[in-house]
Structures are given as structure tokens and as C-alpha cells.
């Protein structure tokens, strides 16, 4: 966890409010500095530009979810030597619940990432998650096929479309300001729907 000065905390608080209200592209750096009561020079002593301020607000949480996501991928590979690959769908749903609670523990940050990041390097954040998911899952499925633990095939194009639709649907919780309780119910229903579809295409053993 980063340590901030009182000045930085004030800049971050006002910056977050400005980005949430207007999005990154329309947020006014001059307005942020003015509201904070600082000079432009004081601001630049902490952040070189508006993008750096946005990055300071979201990077730790964005990286945190990505790391959790990679851990979830590894957990699936650990099912193989334990001969528990048939439990992959249940494991995915378990991690989905962990992810949604992490998202709601950091809701404002994910609101910035999902709804306010156009014009920043985070504008493709969901797409980046999708690409990690597809790359690792295809390696996992290839391993299962070699072991005779998976029947069925799916093209990369269809895999990408389904995965992209799934991630977009999950982050609708943030876009539509669902309560945590509603979001948990929603993503678990979503998991049932998508798992049934995957089971129709790929049968785990």
C-alpha cells in the first residue's frame, strides 16, 4: 500500500471525484488543481500529468485483480495431478465469487476502470483480462485433451466471443451500480448459464 502525503491525498480525493463525474478524457486537470487549492507547480511535483494521476488511483487495484486472476488460472492446472479436473467449472465459480467481492471492496476504483478510463492505458482492461483467460485456458484444455480428460472442440473465434461476452456481463455489475448482494446473485446465475453452455461444447472428465 502506497504511503501518501496530505497533499497527495487531497489531490487523489479530488481527482477521483473529477474522473468519476466526467471520465478521464473530459476531466479538467486545471479544475482539479484549483479545487485542491494548489498551484500547477505543486501538482507537477507529484504527478507529471493527468494520466499519472489516474494511474495512481487505479494501478494497485487493477494489478491486484489481474494477479488474483492469474492465481485462479494456476489453481486449475493444479487440479490435473489431483485428478480433479471435472471440478473445473465449480472452481471457476468459486473464484468468480472471490473476484466480485474484491471488486466491491474497491468499487470506486473499478468504476474508474470500467466506466471512466477511455483515453488511458486502462481502456482495454477488460479486453486484457479476456486475452489472459483465453491464452491460459487453451493451454489448459490442450493438456486435458492429451490426458483424455476433455471431449469436444471450440474454435478460437468462438472461445473469444464467449469469453468476451462473459467478462462484459460480469462487469455490468459495476456499470449499472448493482448492490453487492444483487451482484453476487447475478454473477452466480451468470455462471450457471455460461457453464451449461461450456458443458454442451466441452465435456470435462
- Mean pLDDT, to the nearest integer, reads 95
Q: What is the chain-wise order of helices and strands? A: HHHHHHHEHHE
Largest beta sheet: what is the strand line-up? 1-2
Q: Which residues form runs of ≥5 with pLDDT under 50? A: none
User: What general form does the structure show?
Assistant: elongated
**Number of helical segments?**
9
Distance from N terminus to C terminus (CA atoms, Å) equals 42 Å
The biggest sheet, with number of strands, parallel, antiparallel or mixed sense and barrel status, is:
2 strands, antiparallel
* Helical content band: over 70%
Q: What is the count of structural domains?
A: 1
Beta-strand content bin: under 5%
From the alpha carbons, calculate the radius of gyration and give it in angstroms. Answer: 20 Å
Structural class: mainly alpha
Total number of beta strands: 2
Plain-language structure description:
With 205 residues, this protein is mostly helical. It has one domain (59-204). The protein is built from 9 helices and 2 strands; from the N terminus they run H-H-H-H-H-H-H-E-H-H-E. It has helices at 6-26, 29-36, 40-44, 50-77, 88-105, 107-115, 125-146, 156-175, 180-201; strands spanning 150-151, 203-204. Strands 1-2 form a two-stranded antiparallel ribbon. The longest helix has 28 residues, at 50-77. The chain is elongated. The model has no long low-confidence stretch (mean pLDDT 95).
